[in-house]
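Researcher: I'd like a structural prediction for the single chain below. Treat it as a standalone chain; there are no partners to consider.
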Amino acid sequence: MGIVWLFSTNEQDMHKDMTTIQAASSEAIFIARQPVFRPDSTLWGYELLFRSARTATANVKDGAQATASVIADGLALATEGMPAGPRILINFPEKLLVEDVGFALPKEACIIELLEDVTPSKETLKATRRLKDAGYTIAVDDFFGQPSLLPFLELADIVKLDILELDSDPKLVRQAMDKLPGRSRLTLLAEKVEDNGTFQELRDLGFDLFQGFFFSRPEIIPGKKLSANEITKLQLLSELSADDFEPRRLAEILQSDPNLSYRLFRYINSVGFGLRQKVTSIKRAIDMMGMLQAKQWLRSALMADLNPAPTGGELAFMAVHRAKFMETVCYLSSRRRACVPDALFITGLFSLLDAMLGMDMDEVLKNLPLDDSIVKALRGASEVHNLLSLARSYEHGDWDEIGRQLVDLDLDPDATDRVYAETRLWAQRMVCASSGGGSI
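Model: Treating it as a single chain, here is the predicted structure.
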């Protein structure tokens, strides 16, 4: 992977500080991203999480090198194919903060996040002030009331409160909020929000931003029934996964929906098939894409339409990414003879249907005549489910768990990281085109 240098054009000379970045860029890296949402559940931005792929255990032993890798290569890797607009939080350890490496980042998009182990010394406070005066946004990580962080809070724009550290207790959260100086000027970000109930409580307490996996955990609504529109989409998704699916049926589905046809043509144009002639028919479009890719595109489009909520775009992206990752990474394992592409893709694609529909997975599966291997995987009882668990660990940035799973699945860390990054870009392009250009 080539090095992508990201300099702010009107800032101070950074040549002496780039030596750390240049050294880090020679190693294989992997970047995970976690979404951050506003109170109305619309996407605000992402936090980037680093992992070095040198070892299966994936421990980050050098925070400076980790952040340097994010700056040199990771930022471009994580944002490729992503529409402009989302803010990017990047973790900064003490060494790179003091060395002014933050000036290598575009201040319009990137936020300097001071890690919890950065001490407010004379040097770090001066470095933070330099960034602040230059127009950078400063975030302080993992606050839960510690007096030691108060000097940084005077310079902060965003304060991240660790909700799990506060036991998700509204009383303890309120006490931590009361210890914040200048509360009215601060943006409060609740991190490690794990369920929808906690999200709603924190929103009522006045938090401005939210990070965690509450958006991918289903909020079960008693007595909810699928609408006719939802059932139709699920039936089409199931039909696309059937072994006896006929190619002519794909054209029939697309021809019956002008909106889908338009989005398909736009997708063909956006990914650059190198066409010299205009597309004049659905059949011609399918022929150019190939049956497999056309089916995958339609599945992605149906998933993107399934949940109209603001978080639906992120859920659709995660589902499509899981699908492509599982389909692809299986062939890296010594057990690749057991790989069935369609079954792997459908398992990943359907793995978030419970969250998207607000229903228990067993209830969702009643409406889908799926192969037993897919049903078992979605219920957590098969070898395919192990690949699904690996995808989830990557999403969470749980590097230690990833290391254990890679060994169990006989997967090479470098190759798996590369597949995850490549399939993320594929999913970004697919969902962005199929959803009508929504945020991902």
